[in-house]
Amino acid sequence: MNFKNVIVWNRYLSWFFGIGYVVIHYIYPHRHGDGGLMQMDLIPRYFFMTSFIWMTFHAIVAIKMHGWPTLRLRNLRDVYIFDAWLVLLITTPIFSIPALGASQVLMAIAWPPLAIHLALNVWYTMARLPWPTLRQVPARIIMMTIWLAIIAGAAVQTFPLEATHSHS
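and the corresponding structure tokens:
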């Protein structure tokens, strides 16, 4: 298999997991911090376990495609790569470790990098579509906005309920 095929499969898997992360939160409501992976229902548990393995593959492909991130963010591509690393280094640990996910402040820090990464995936995917109308900036902005609204709904459902817990 040549590297171009690896890139294509990485994109397919990226969409599967990107949409899956959001859909799983709608179908299987789970507040971060309310227990770890093993306390989740079977489908989300295996989905997230598989996604951890995929993230390693995804990171390796991203490094080969784009190189390492830079702190000099000169263009949208640099922001995209930098944000991908924020997802890996900030979002993933906060989502994965129940003690971190129990904090509303940390959850507020964790969700934006993921939302930005998923929205930029829409931006770049639409740029490759065969239909010129959908490749135009207004269409891409509309689709990113819709996708961000869907992601925001999933995010709100996952926030820990610190403020409503009884302290008796």
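(Above: one complete record from the training split.) The first helix runs from residue 3 to 27.
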